[in-house]
Design goal:
By secondary structure, the chain is an alpha/beta fold. Helix content is about 35%, strand content about 25%. It has two domains: about 1-80 and about 160-255, 3-Layer(aba) Sandwich (Rossmann fold), CATH 3.40.50.300; about 90-155, no CATH class. The chain has helices spanning about 50-60, 95-105, 115-125, 140-150, 170-185, 200-205, 230-235, 240-255, and strands at about 10-20, 25-35, 40-45, 65-70, 80-85, 160, 190-195, 205-210, 220-225. A hairpin with a 5-residue loop joins strand 1 and strand 2 (about 25-35). About 35% of the residues are buried.
Length: about 260
Amino acid sequence: MKTQTSGASLIDIQGVSKTYDNGTTALQAVTAGIAQGSFVSLLGPSGCGKSTLLRIIAGLITPSSGVLDWPATGGVRPDDIGFVFQDATLMPWASVFDNVYLPLKLRGKMRKDVEPQIMDALTRVGLAQFSESFPRELSGGMKMRVSIARALVTRPPVLLMDEPFAALDEFTREKLDDDLLALWQAENWTVIFVTHSVYESVYLSERVLVMGARPGRILHDMVIDEPFPRGRAFRAKPSYHAQCAEISDMLRHDVEA
């Protein structure tokens, strides 16, 4: 049973702000630390800068001010960070196998040499038997599993997820939440998960960074002090609903203000 993480600091975010060329300030003086091996959610309303912060962490965009440091890796961002987007973004003309192969192909790896690695990734998301299927033959949940397999095929130490289950029905979403937690526990990744669902954030996370409406800033850093694995029983606990209600009230008050 996994309990609250006590890993070394992996990411230190100090006073990070982002203003785009059109004058929109997406983030304002965001400060937070992310522990190695932890599961942290970025939660907030649409347009609060969650995705912007995730992309700054990934190195896809640069902050306007502030510092993002990686003390656990000597101050250098890892070369390999897995990123799962809201849309599965699969190549429709390619098989499931070849979609997962893409990151390795871009690194110059021969298909035959990495076949065991690809099949291992597909096995971990429960899709080994669908390796030769095409995206059009898959459900929405299965497409997202392929996207996750593609992100983890390089075995990254950090997995960034930008509202990956937002478009799925509630039943599929809950199942993928459970699958994701099982993978996180097995692989000891550091996961940073963007969501606008209060219930999903509390269910998945060790910590929830609650972000206010634009300009994005952290209203509260809430520790979800509940053991893993979680499941249906946790969703029924009074403490789960109390924490969800506390965060919901916080977001409501911010929007009204």
